[in-house]
Amino acid sequence: MFMGSLPTFTGDATLWFSQLEAQFRAQSITPEQQLQILYGCMPPQLASTARDLITDPSPGATYASVKLEVEKRNTRSEESRFNELMADEELGDRTPSEFLQRLRELSEISAPPLAIPLNEGYLVRRQTED
Length: 130
Prior knowledge:
- This protein has eight helices and no strands.
- The chain has helices at 13-26, 31-41, 44-47, 51-55, 63-74, 78-88, 96-109, 120-129.
- The longest helix has 14 residues, at 13-26.
- Helix 7 packs across helix 8.
- Residues 11-86 form the DUF7041 domain.
- This is DUF7041 domain-containing protein.
């Protein structure tokens, strides 16, 4: 039986699952029990996006498969985060290196950090396209 207190959900699905799994390991909770606990204790913010998984679980559902789907539904992709950064920032009178540094700073503010796959050639092309 699960006797731990549930981690507080702060908006980061990956962090919440990591904390929950630490409790599962500490209490030697079986995979079958993990799935049932997940269905019963998922924070409302996550449960609302996983309603179909909870109300009509597939016969082959596992904790790992449900977790993966919930994280996918509740985590922005790196591409989405990158596009958001690029939409709000312009090269302006900064050098490409300064612009890249600014994007890296912004990516560290968001959680988890975003790997920015840029090179100076891309930045120069972007400046001339605008």
